[in-house]
UniProtKB/TrEMBL annotation:
It comes from the Bacteria. PROSITE patterns: PROKAR_LIPOPROTEIN. Keywords: Cell outer membrane, Membrane, Signal. Belongs to the SusD family. It comes from Portibacter lacus. One of its GO terms (cellular component) is cell outer membrane. Residues 72-225 form the SusD-like N-terminal domain. This is Membrane protein.
Length: 504
């Protein structure tokens, strides 16, 4: 059901020279006659989706694990030797600008954006060849959806970023500086509104996994939630716009569509035999056995010692590089919570028969579905779940959007009931965040929720005070709400970009 991502985006040539901004394909694809029929545009739009798949030795969701989950209070991975990128990120180091992870995600996101821009430019020039005619608007909407999705990640990670709304060459890119977050949001919102108006509510068969109008509504609701958050950083993703009612309207449209529902069994949401279930609003597609089609992100979670005795291939986090679940997160669960067992691996039997204390996520792993190697997991990655839609609705209400306390309590208690827990009442924002944390542990949503609610500095300072036994975490300050601009980008042209405050 997820074949469309496998078509090769053959006409894209990526810039790799370190002396140039790695922002765009260098081939002028329109001049060689590639886009001369519907099939060429179909290959092009499939290549846009491929930018969210496997790139080099990782896939796009791997960066959520490192940049979001490892940054949050869900993971404690100080690393005594400190050689892994996620150790420095976990430790709030001020010297992240030279990390490969930071540079790679910038390049991956902008190359994806330039793929989108290539399609959009060619739709203007040659879109008349597409048949049926309605497919042209759909392809434009899909390209604009992915562009908005990537820009939203860039804003959350880097704050002010350069805007490219059409194909540009690397030379032209050298003249385009960073734009304010509010300007980037204007492009994101425009793109997602177009996607809502021009995409179907669902796809089926081989097209399942393409962007839909419901997915666009959900992402746009997250945009409004984030944009509305308190402005703790002068160039951060939250600008205190107070647009919670706009987010609520979009979330209610998803809810009232009747298209989605909470599944009864929490574990079945992530079952390899149950992909595309009623809980999934939008996910990234992976399939085992195809070249560059399987996912790597599950490998980001587990320890290599566990892999040696449980998998037919090597991989996982080595030694003190383990992305260990924080005691703070584990202690937040009730003993009766049905989500603990399918979310965590707390120990395993090692090579010598000893029981190893582990504490890593196994929500996305099933040994019976291990592919040919550590890059070949077939489980789709959930970007937006229906339960998230419901809990974002509760968040909007608590932030002042229309709705009642009973609406909030009902949403949270439905989630708790599935987890085997008793109902609670008078839920406030802190309680909602605690409930979200347990529901979405390992899904890389915690950091974003802390940032957009303005709780991030308080929560992470408490985490440092109570969890940092290795005394590796640096000062928790507003500067670190976003990441540094990659040093390679700073060095390309003096004065084009200035570094984000607080980074060396």
């Amino acid at each position: 059901m997820k074949k469309f991502i496998l078509i090769i985006f053959s006409f894209v040539v990526l810039v790799s020279c370190e002396k140039e901004l790695n922002l765009a394909p260098i081939s002028q694809v329109g001049s060689n006659g590639f886009f001369e029929n519907t099939n060429a545009f179909t290959q092009g739009i499939n290549g846009v989706y491929a930018s969210l798949g496997v790139t080099g030795s990782q896939d796009y969701p791997s960066y959520y694990v490192i940049l979001d989950e490892s940054r949050s209070d869900n993971i404690y991975s100080p690393g005594q030797s400190g050689v892994r990128d996620w150790n420095a990120i976990n430790n709030f180091s001020s010297t992240l600008a030279t990390l490969g992870t930071i540079n790679n995600i910038w390049n991956i996101a902008y190359n994806g954006i330039m793929r989108c821009n290539t399609i959009l430019d060619q739709l203007v020039e040659n879109g008349g060849v597409i048949s049926p005619a309605g497919l042209k608007a759909q392809y434009e909407a899909e390209a604009r959806f992915i562009r908005a999705f990537l820009y939203f990640d860039l804003v959350k990670w880097f704050g002010d970023v350069p805007i490219f709304d059409k194909f540009v060459s690397p030379t032209e890119a050298l003249e385009i500086g960073r734009s304010p977050v509010t300007d980037v949001y204007n492009l994101i919102i425009s793109d997602l509104e177009f996607a809502i108006a021009n995409l179907p509510a669902s796809f089926s068969g081989a097209d399942q996994g393409r962007a839909t109008s419901m997915a666009a509504r959900g992402i746009l609701a997250k945009v409004y939630l984030t944009k509305s958050g308190p402005k703790l950083h002068p160039n951060g993703p939250c600008v205190a716009s107070g647009e919670y009612d706009k987010a609520l309207t979009l979330l209610n449209e998803i809810i009232n569509s009747g298209q989605f529902s909470m599944v009864d069994d929490f574990e079945s949401i992530f079952d390899y035999n149950n992909e595309g279930n009623s809980e999934i609003v939008w996910d990234l597609q992976f399939i085992s056995g195809g070249v560059g089609a399987g996912g790597y992100y599950p490998t980001e979670y587990y320890d290599e010692g566990w892999a040696r005795v449980n998998l037919p291939f090597a991989g996982g986090n080595p030694g003190d590089g383990s992305k260990r679940i924080s005691e703070d997160l584990l202690n937040s669960y009730d003993d009766a919570d049905l989500r603990v067992e399918p979310t965590f691996q707390l120990n395993y039997v090692g090579d010598s028969g000893d029981t190893i204390d582990a504490k890593f996520y196994d929500k996305f792993m099933d040994k019976d579905f291990a592919g040919g190697d550590r890059f070949d997991w077939s489980l789709n990655y959930p970007i937006l779940r229906y339960t998230d839609v419901l809990m974002m609705k509760a968040e909007c209400i608590l932030q002042g959007a229309s709705g009642s306390q009973s609406d909030v309590d009902d949403i949270v208690n439905n989630v708790r009931a599935r987890a085997g827990l008793d109902p609670i009442s008078d839920i406030n924002l802190d309680v909602l965040l605690a409930e979200r944390r347990k529901e979405f542990a390992g899904e890389n949503l915690r950091w974003d929720a802390l940032v957009r609610t303005g709780k991030v500095l308080e929560v992470m300072q408490n985490f440092k005070n109570t969890e940092d036994s290795a005394e590796k975490l640096e000062e928790i300050k507003a500067d670190f709400i976003i990441y540094p601009i990659p040093q390679k980008q700073i060095d390309v042209k003096k004065g084009l970009y200035t570094q984000n405050q607080g980074y060396k």
